[in-house]
Specification:
2 copies of one chain form a homodimer. The first copy, chain A, is α/β, with parallel strands linked by helices. The first copy, chain A, folds into 3 domains: about 60 residues, Arc Repressor Mutant, subunit A (Orthogonal Bundle), CATH 1.10.10; about 230 residues, Aspartate Aminotransferase, domain 2, CATH 3.40.640.10; about 120 residues, Aspartate Aminotransferase, domain 1, CATH 3.90.1150. In chain A, about 45% of the residues lie in helices and about 10% in strands. Chain A has 18 helices and 14 strands. Chain A has an 8-stranded mixed beta sheet, with helices on both faces. The first copy, chain A, has a 4-stranded antiparallel beta sheet with strand order 11-12-14-13. In chain A, strand 7, helix 11 and strand 8 form a beta-alpha-beta unit.
Chain lengths: ~500, ~500
C-alpha cells in the first residue's frame, strides 16, 4: 500500500480505506489477526498514531474485533460485501426511473444554445458586474440574522417589497409585497404551481403553438394537456371552453405569445378571466421577457385585470440580469400565497438565499431599471436588424408576426416558401450553416397548422444579422436538403 | 383622480390605470367619448404627453377605439369585467389544492425554531462573513461566462470538484467530481430523487422513528411509506424485507440515525446493500450533520461501501455554513447522475448559481475546513453541557442514546418517567417554560414504542444548558399538566 501525503484524504482514512477494502474483498479473511500497530506503521512509513486511529475507526465500524489477550482480528461479517461493479456501473436502469419522468424526459426538441439565433438568451456583456459584486459583498459582510437563518419560504421580505415596486414601475402591475413569492426563476415558479394545484389527469389548457418547456412541469405533475389554438388575437378562449370546459389551469403568455409574439386582445382577456371565475380555474400568466418591451404602450398584464384573484403571474430576474441567477417571482392572491409558501417550505425550505439581499438592493438603488433601459435600446436595434435582413433577404418567403417585446421574432412561411420545404428542413439547413434557427412546428403539441422560424436575437450583434441570415437564406434556397447551395446561386438571389 | 409623483409607477401608467378602472367598472360606459387630451392634462395637472401615452396604451389594449373625425371613445367590450373580489379575496379554496399536496401539508408536527433546543439549527455567530463576502465579490467582479449563462444542471464544475475533495477530507468518501450533483440543499436533493424515481404507490422504507421532513418529499411523490424499526444497531433490515421486500427505495441515516443518534452496524449495512442489489432498489443515505462528528473514528459512510452503485448519498453546505445558503449535493453512480441532471434541467434549469463560484473558492481555500474544526469544539462543549445537565437534573429519568455526531441528542424516558407522563406532555410543559423540546413520539409513523425528548444544542450556549434544562426538569416534575411548578418544588429537587 502506498500513502499519498499530497492527497486531501487524511492519512488515517487512507490506511482505514486500504484495510477495509482488503477485508471486504476477502484478502483479509474473517478471524485473521492483524499485525501490531507498530509493525503496520513501520511497513507504511507513517506514525503509529495514524495506524491506531485507523484501527480504532475500523473497530468502531465493526470490521475488527478485539481478541482476549490484546490485539485485533478481522470480524466475521454476516455476509460478503457486494462484488465490485462491472464496468460501466449499472447504476440506474431506465426501468427504475418513474413512469411520469420517463415521459417528461422523452419530450425532446431541437435547440442550440450556442446559436446566435437562440431564443430567450440575453446578452450579458454590458451587465454591471462591478455593482452586483459590490452589493453581494455589502449584503454578506454584515448580514442580518434574518438573511442567514430564518429566511421565509416566501422570500426575503425586502426583496418581496422591491419586486412589488419593480413590477409597478416596469409593468404597471400594482401589487403588494405580501402578494409576491420569490421563486427559483419562472420555471421553478411554474413547477411549484403545477405540483401544488394539479391532480393526475387534470386538464390544462396550453397554447398551440406554445412554450415547450412549460409542458415539462405540467406533465411532471400528471396534467392532461389540452392544446388551445392561438390566432391573431391570442388564445382562442371559446375553443378552449369547447375542448375542456372544466380545465383546472390555463397557462398563457398574453403580453406576447410564445412563440408567435401576438398580444392577447382585451376581449379575449376578459373572456378568459370570466371563464376562470365561473369554473374556479386558475390562469397562469407567464409574462416572460416583457421587460424588453419596445414601446411604452405595451398592453398591461392580464394580472392587472384580475380582480377576483384567479391569475398567478410569473416572471424572472434571471433573463433581465444573469441567466445563472435563477431568481424569479410569482404574484398571486393571498390564499394562493399561503399554500405556495407552505409548499415551498416542504420542498426545499426556501429559494436559495445568497442572491436575495443583494438583489433587493440592486432593485432599490435603481441599477436594474438603468440596465434595462440600456438593454431595451440594444435589443430594439437587434430586432430591427433582423427585420431588415429578413425583408431584404427573404422577401415574400417569411412573414414576420408583429410583436412588441421579447428577444425573438417569429417568421411564418409564405405559401411560396411552404411549397418548397418544411420548417423542420429549413431548421436543419440553418444548423448545417452553423446558424441554427428553431422550427415553429416543434412548438405544436398536435399537427402544426403553420410553418415558420422562431428567430432569437438576444445575443446577435447588429452587424451579424445580415450576413448570418444571408447564409441561412442561401441554405433555404439551395436545392437538395442539408446543402447550403453554391455561392453563385446565393449571390444571384441575394438582391431580391 | 390624484397623480402621485412620488410613486414608483410612471405617471402615464397611473393615468391609464385610472381610466382602465373606470371603463371596467362602468363609470365610463361603452361608446362614451373621452375629453380631449389637453383637457384631461389640464384637469390632472400633468403634461399632455403623459396623457397621450396613456391613451395610446389604452388604445393598444383595446379599451378605446378611434372615432371617424378624430378623438377616441370607449370600446364596446364583449363582456363585463369580473366584479371586484369580495373581501377577503376567495383566491384558492382548499378544494383546488391537489389531493396529494393536501396530504403533504397535513403532515404536521410540533417545533419551535426559536427554541434554544431546536434540532439541526447551527450557530452562525462565528461564521467568517468577511471572507464569504470577499469571495462573493471576487467571484462576480470578473465572472467567467460559464458562471453567468451556461451553468450545468449538475452544478458549476469547480464546485463539483471542490465538493468531491471536501467529502474525501471530511468524510473519507472517495468520489469523482462527475459523481457529484449540486442541489438546493439536501431537502432539494431528496425531493429530486423522489420525483424522478418514485411512481405513485411505490413502497419506500423509512426509519421508525425517523425524520419527519423526509416524509414530505416521499409523500409528495406518491410513495407508500413502510416504517422499518430502528434498534441499537440501526435499521432492522430483516424487518424491512419482511414488510416490503420489493420496496423501490430505502431512506436511511446510517451515520447517526435521526432522531435516535445510533450508528448502523456493519452487518446491517452489508445486509441493506445486499438487499438493494438483489432487488435493484435504491438506498438514499442522508448523512446529515456528520461533519459535526465528535471523534475521528466515526463510521465511514454507507456510500463508501457501495460498490454496485445503489446508494445515493445526500449532504448539504447550508447546515455547516449558513442555513439560508440552500446549497447541497448528492453523490451517485453515473447512470443516476445522467437522469438527475436531465431532471434538474427540466425543473428549474439548475440550482441557483450566485453562491456556487464563491462556495467553490471557500472550499478550495480551506475556509470551511477551518470553520468546521472550530465549530466541532464549540458543539462538543455544548453537547457535553447538555449531557452533564441531564445527568445532574434528570438522573434515572432520561437515558441519553450515545451518538457521535450531529447537533442533538435523544434522551429516552426511563420506566419511572414514562409512568408519570408522555413525551407529548413533557414537550408541552417544556414549551410552557419557553424551552420547547421536541417529543420523540412525533417522529413515529405508527404507534410510538418509546418515549423521549429530542434535544438540540446547536444554538445553546454552554452556560445556558444547566439553567434551561433545570427549568424543564422542574416543569416535568410539577404535578398537573402544563404547569411549571412552584419555585419551592423546583429548588428542592434541583440538587439531586
Amino acid at each position: 500500500m502506498h500513502l499519498d501525503r499530497a492527497a486531501d484524504m487524511p492519512l488515517y482514512q487512507q490506511v482505514a480505506a486500504h484495510l477495509r477494502a482488503r477485508i471486504l474483498d476477502g484478502a483479509l479473511p474473517a478471524g485473521s489477526r492483524l499485525l501490531g500497530s507498530r509493525e503496520i506503521a513501520r511497513e507504511l512509513g507513517c506514525s503509529r498514531a495514524i495506524v491506531l486511529t485507523a484501527l480504532e475507526l475500523l473497530y468502531a465500524e465493526g470490521y475488527l474485533v478485539s481478541v482476549p489477550r490484546g490485539g485485533v482480528k478481522v470480524a466475521a461479517l454476516a455476509r460478503k460485501a457486494a462484488p465490485d461493479a462491472p464496468s460501466p456501473a449499472p447504476g440506474i436502469e431506465p426501468a427504475r426511473l418513474s413512469h411520469r419522468w420517463r415521459s417528461v424526459l422523452a419530450i425532446d426538441y431541437a435547440f442550440d444554445l450556442a446559436s446566435p439565433f437562440s431564443t430567450g438568451t440575453p446578452d450579458i456583456a454590458d451587465f454591471p458586474f462591478d455593482t452586483w459584486a459590490r452589493l453581494l459583498r455589502q449584503a454578506w459582510r454584515n448580514a442580518p440574522r434574518s438573511a442567514c437563518t430564518d429566511m421565509s419560504p416566501l422570500g426575503w421580505q425586502p426583496l418581496r417589497e422591491a419586486t412589488a415596486e419593480f413590477l409597478g414601475t416596469v409593468r404597471g402591475l400594482l401589487c403588494r409585497p405580501e402578494e409576491v413569492v420569490i421563486t427559483p426563476a419562472s420555471s421553478g415558479a411554474l413547477d411549484l404551481c403545477c405540483r401544488m394545484l394539479i391532480d393526475p389527469g387534470d386538464e390544462v389548457w396550453v397554447e398551440e403553438p406554445g412554450f415547450i418547456e412549460a409542458r415539462w412541469a405540467l406533465q411532471a405533475a400528471g396534467a392532461r394537456l389540452v392544446p388551445v389554438p392561438v390566432d391573431g388575437k391570442g388564445l382562442v378562449v371559446a375553443e378552449g371552453i369547447r375542448r375542456a370546459p372544466r380545465a383546472k389551469l390555463a397557462v398563457v403568455t398574453p403580453s406576447h405569445q410564445f412563440p408567435l409574439g401576438v398580444a392577447m386582445s382585451l376581449d379575449r382577456r376578459l373572456e378568459l378571466l370570466d371563464w376562470a371565475q365561473r369554473q374556479g380555474s386558475t390562469v397562469i400568466e407567464d409574462d416572460y421577457n416583457s421587460e424588453f418591451r419596445q414601446r411604452d404602450s405595451m398592453a398591461a398584464s392580464l394580472k392587472s385585470l384580475d380582480r377576483a384573484g384567479h391569475v398567478v403571474y410569473l416572471g424572472t430576474f434571471s433573463k433581465v440580469m444573469l441567466p445563472s441567477l435563477r431568481i424569479g417571482y410569482l404574484v398571486a392572491s393571498p390564499a394562493f400565497i399561503d399554500v405556495f409558501g407552505r409548499g415551498r417550505a416542504r420542498i426545499d425550505v426556501h429559494t436559495a438565499g445568497t442572491a436575495q439581499p443583494a438583489l433587493a438592493e440592486f432593485l432599490r438603488e435603481g441599477h436594474l431599471l438603468r440596465y434595462l433601459r440600456r438593454m431595451r435600446l440594444v435589443y430594439a436595434a437587434r430586432k430591427q436588424a433582423v427585420l431588415d435582413a429578413v425583408q431584404a433577404l427573404l422577401p415574400g418567403e417569411l412573414d414576420i408576426v408583429p410583436s412588441e417585446a421579447g428577444l425573438h421574432v417569429t417568421g411564418l412561411f409564405t405559401p411560396r416558401l411552404a411549397a418548397r420545404l418544411t420548417d423542420t428542413e429549413a431548421s436543419a439547413r440553418s444548423r448545417a450553416v452553423s446558424n441554427f434557427i428553431q422550427p415553429l412546428s416543434q412548438c405544436f403539441l398536435g399537427t402544426p397548422d403553420r410553418q415558420g422560424l422562431v428567430i432569437g436575437f438576444g445575443r446577435l450583434p447588429v452587424e451579424d444579422a445580415h450576413p448570418r441570415l444571408a447564409a441561412v437564406a442561401d441554405a433555404l434556397r439551395a436545392t437538395g436538403s442539408g446543402q447550403s447551395g453554391g455561392p453563385g446561386a446565393g449571390a444571384a438571389r441575394r438582391g431580391r
